Amino acid sequence: MKFLENAPRFLFFTGKGGVGKTSVACATALTLAKSGRKVLLVSTDPASNVGQVFGMIIGNTVTPLRDVPGLSALEIDPEQAAEAYRERIIAPVRGLLPETELVGIAESLSGSCTTEIASFDEFTNLLADDTSYGDYDHIVFDTAPTGHTLRLLQLPGSWTDFLAAGKGDPSCLGPLSGLEKHKQVYAKALQTLTDPARTRLVLVSRAQTSSLGEIERTYLELNQIGIGGGYVVVNGVLPEAAGDEDLAQALRAREAAAIAAIPEAVAGLPRDVLDLKPGNMVGIPALESLFAATSEAVITADAALADVEEAPLAALVNEVEFGGHGLVMCMGKGGVGKTTVAAAIAVALAKRGHAVHLTTTDPAAHLTETLHGSIPGLTVSRIDPEAAITEYRSHVMETKGRNLDDDGRAALAEDLLSPCTDEVAVFRQFSKVVQESRRHFVVMDTAPTGHTLLLLDATGSYHREIARQVGDAMGFVTPLMRLQDPAQTKVVLVTLAETTPVLEAEELQDDLERAGIHPWAWVINNSIAAAHPQTPFLQARAAGEMDQITKVHTLTDRVALIPLLPEEPIGEAKLSALTALSSQPA
To answer: Which of 500, 527, 579, 583 is catalytic?
Structure first.
């Protein structure tokens, strides 16, 4: 493995959810420990299953792993860290401010930025405290902070002064007020991160275009603040041992094409390719096999065949159609197929004679551009997130930033680079389209999170702040109310039959329910089990999906299952096939 050669003290693994960061990090820690090093494995991933992988309860204290001499592990629960963090900020003003103000403050501290900063606050010690952790040869992290979090910590001037002076109440600077440690500690941690002799960044991806695009974005963002010299690991590539059935051959060809077109910024980095394994990465023998090639000998032909019930997408379309008009919002993390599902639903409704507006934020737009003008009654439009965000940032800097000093403007500018701000900007565009659903069908391939919606609707000073930024104090209330009405809006959560994507969708559901929005259905996309594979390798993978498919059925009353297809569903004919009455392969 190239990324393990002359490994420095700190190794950070980063990549989108579900690519196998935790598995690769665990296998790395195990390999280093077996070579005689003293290793600490640290997980800050909300989907962390480090304890499950090693068959032990770990938690938030350093725990030696009984079966691996020299290896200890620590799990930092980001949600617990964020909760403790919120309490530190709110406790001093509880009883001094009205309850409505406290609710607004709590919501402003409930976004991904707070969770990130709280987690970074927790593991700063691991980077900066040589006395407590100095005897470890290697510290391996299964996630890395985003460039946005690190830039927030590098802001000039005093965060507390900026807030105390009443210069604003931005969404991501609020959390900074809870940082307990001195700036010198953060400076030392950042210095460690940017030193290639001490820190190595490993970008983990799957052999998929969206996943490879994500590691390029991460690499460029971290590169801008001095964290360079990355390594690429393409994980879970279908091996030759998977057999030669049509599905396997088509998947191998698709993966080879994605790797051949790897984005330019990361194409020249040292790269390792890891085979997909037939089973899940649980237990030390499984981890020891991760860095080895997959041979046919390790595939058990007697893997229990996955017996999955048919759950066609067509059944959901029938229910949607019954209303005659309305809003369908497909939500989920990146790379699960939201755009595909939204387009398939829109095509099916249009072919049944309805007027449908499909709106997408898909930057590639390759899936929807083939539909333009091809189906009577179907209108396709694209919201350009970059244009919406740029326009919004300019507006806020010109208005809210007009009277700030240089430090204040720097803080505000960074705040406007947060994911929360991006959502607010795109939501302004959405609001216009949402109104149309009173007359016909509107299908969207993404939506703001519950957190963003609550920020837009929060009471007190935060509400007034957002109202001033959005420009129309009442413009966002009506869309929120519309989204909360199940007669008008159906939220469809899209996921994959894998541990991390299901957990992320479950968190998304909880987040929406805080905003009074109850997801209507779940769609499990790209299911191997639903494709009814014929070779032992893919049958073993299908059997591994069953736990997650069962879990989804406990989280919702409506489930649709879309099989993994040999070819990507692009174009009217292939999208129409997704809403055929059976999920059996054609």
So the answer is: 500
DSSP secondary structure code for residue 97 in this structure? B
CATH number for the domain that contains residue 341: 3.40.50.300
Looking at the structure, tell me whether residues 318 and 284 fall in a common domain: no
Q: 335 phi and psi, to 5 degrees?
A: 90, 5
Catalytic residue among 15, 16, 23, 236: 23
Give the count of domains, the chain.
Answer: 2
What confidence tens digit (pLDDT) does each residue in 126-143 have? 887 777 788 999 999 988
Helix (H, G, I), strand (E, B) or coil at 344: helix
* Shared domain check, 354 and 219: no
330 and 243 part of one domain? no
Question: In sequence order, what are the residues at sequence separation of 6 or more whose Cβ sits closer than 8 angstroms to the Cβ of residue 424?
Answer: 392, 448, 452, 455, 456, 466, 469, 470
- Catalytic: which of 14, 15, 16, 21? 21
Q: Is 218 annotated in the active site? A: no
Neighbours of 171 (CB within 10 A): 26
To the query of whether residue 121 is one of the catalytic residues in this protein, the response is no
Q: What is the pLDDT of residues 335-379, one digit of tens each?
A: 788 889 999 999 999 999 999 999 987 655 556 666 766 789 999
Domain final residue pick, 298, 322, 339:
298
Host domain of residue 149 = 2-298
Q: Is 307 inside any structural domain?
A: no
Same domain, 340 and 373: yes
Residues 339 and 264 in one domain: no
Chosen domain end from 267, 298, 329: 298
Q: Residue 204 and residue 548: Cα distance in Å, rounded?
A: 23
Look at residue 282 and give its three-state secondary structure: coil
> CA angle at residue 103 from 97 to 104, to 5 degrees?
90
End-to-end Cα distance, the chain: 40
Torsion over CA: 290, 292, 297, 301 (sign): positive
Q: H-helix or E-strand containing 200? A: strand 199-206
Given the residues 44, 45, 289, 527, the one annotated as active site: 45
Catalytic residue status for 22: yes
Burial state string for 223-241 with b = 16 or more CB within 10 A and e = fewer than 16: eeeebeebbbbbbbbbbeb
20 has catalytic annotation: yes
Q: What digits encode the pLDDT tens for the residues 141-153?
A: 988 776 666 766 6
Over residues 400-443, the pLDDT tens digits come to: 888 888 888 888 888 787 766 776 777 777 777 888 888 999 99
250 and 394 fall within a common domain: no
Residue 133 lies in a domain: yes
Considering the candidates 15, 17, 20, 408, report the single residue annotated as catalytic. 20
User: Which of the residues 15, 17, 18, 236 is marked catalytic?
Assistant: 18
My answer on whether 278 and 339 are in the same domain is no
Known catalytic residue: 45? yes
Inside any domain, residue 398: yes
Q: Residue 167 falls within a domain, yes or no?
A: yes
- Concerning whether 100 is annotated as a catalytic residue, the answer is no
